[in-house]
Amino acid sequence: MDKFIIKGGVPLKGTVAVRPAKNALLPCMAASLLTTEQVRFTSSARHMDIISMLSVLEHLGADVEGKPGGRLSVRAANGHGDLEAPYDLVRRMRASVLVLGPMLARYQRARVSLPGGCAIGARPIDLHLRALATLGADIRVEHGYVETTAKKLKGAEVVFDKTTVGGTENILMAAVLAEGETVVRNAAREPEIVDLAGMLTGMGAHIEGAGTDTIRVEGVRELHGVTHTCIPDRIVAGTLLIAGAITGGDVTCTDVEPEHLEALLLKLRSMGAKVDAGESKVRVAAPRKLVSTDIVTQPFPGFPTDLQAQFMALLSQAKGTGTVKETIFENRFMHVPELVRMGADIRIEGNLAVISGPRPLSGAPVMASDLRASACLVLAGLCAGGVTEIRRIYHLDRGYESLEKSLRALGGRVRRVKE
Ligand code: UD1
């Protein structure tokens, strides 16, 4: 198992190019099951989650060429005999459930292990299943597996009780090959949904309204191959920009979509940072003193829950009292006790964290608990006095490609060592 050793106190300065988004690549890779033809991705990212999704696709009989981090191509010419995504693969990455919709649409049946909870909450998939049932899927949950069959999916009106990114993606991928029109209401509006819809349209699907809360899909008989470029990773970009701000530095991210980062940039500005957003690049220069603010996590275009932990590290260095309200996941404050051990002043009241600052942080051995909490601890380590040792870095590797290299390119003193 790897760990990070960070010597804090260096203001990060420079420019980093951002790679394609994990959360866009995962559904788009699953969508390649919808055609017998080849689907090409012009670039990818070398995250553990991408490697896991490739294993799932290969297990389902797809031929995969290329390497995670570079170009990839997937061809699902034939369905695999048992059409099953087994527990051993799904437990490594819950986004494996994204194969449910495309498998059902293409092969009329799918057997996918239930993902179970994770560190940040129970994360059920009931909304995915209910939506697929509305399209006519017969669904049984037995022995820890979801078993679904549908002779022919039929378009219908799907109303999500709660906004769900993965649920919206699954239903889109099922609806594109269903008979007739599907209308998805209370759909997620995340840029990753727009990206997936763009790829599906490139494959011949008829979709309108992606990026709004009502998406209309007119089913087609078959889809063809496509070459697709996924959107840049707004969460990786946001993490690097916060790294600049927390260390009193000046960081520019290139190859980004600034409008995907608006909620974060608004908050950074209100804290006193100088923000310049140009075409496909964003620069954030830290002020002499950061001023506190409040955030509430919300579905897009609100403040993303995936940047909440990193932003909390930043608030610990700002003057005044700030609050963080987490409304998406019920258990996403796992980073708080570790930040407090490093010297932060944070009080939790239910889903609200109250942060008083600035408090100097001091390096300590800490333990990563989930993907974004790990990123938060890295940021804390970068601005702390002395040495911070972060264990269980495998959580970080699920969604960041060699984060230590990007940080070193900006002047950060971060080393990866084998335990
Ligand atoms: C996706 C992202 C994740 C991000 C999250 C919210 C991917 C691979 N992951 O996760 O990084 O943090 O969106 O922006 O894109 N829910 C249910 N029942 C369901 C589905 C969801 O109750 O069937 C709940 C979840 O527990 C959560 C909320 O709805 O409380 C939102 O979850 P959802 O948008 O589905 O998140 P994911 O798609 O899993």
Characterise the protein shown here:
It contains 14 helices and 24 strands. The chain is α/β, with parallel strands linked by helices and 419 residues long. The chain is 30% helix and 26% strand. It has helices spanning 22-31, 48-59, 87-90, 100-107, 126-134, 165-175, 191-202, 234-246, 262-270, 308-315, 335-341, 371-383, 394-397, 403-409, and strands at residues 2-7, 13-17, 38-41, 63-66, 72-75, 84-85, 109-113, 138-142, 145-149, 157-159, 181-185, 206-208, 214-218, 226-228, 250-254, 274-278, 281-285, 294-296, 320-325, 345-349, 352-357, 365-367, 387-391, 413-418. The chain is elongated. Helix 1 (22-31) runs parallel beside helix 2 and helix 5 packs parallel to helix 6 (165-175). The longest helix is centred in the middle third of the chain and has 13 residues, at 234-246. The chain has a 4-stranded mixed sheet, covered by helices on one side. A 4-stranded mixed sheet has the order 2-15-17-16, covered by helices on one side. The chain has a 4-stranded mixed sheet with strand order 4-5-3-14, with helices on one face. The structure holds uridine-diphosphate-N-acetylglucosamine. Uridine-diphosphate-N-acetylglucosamine is lined by residues 23, 26, 95, 121, 123-128, 162, 164-167, 192, 305-306, 328-329.
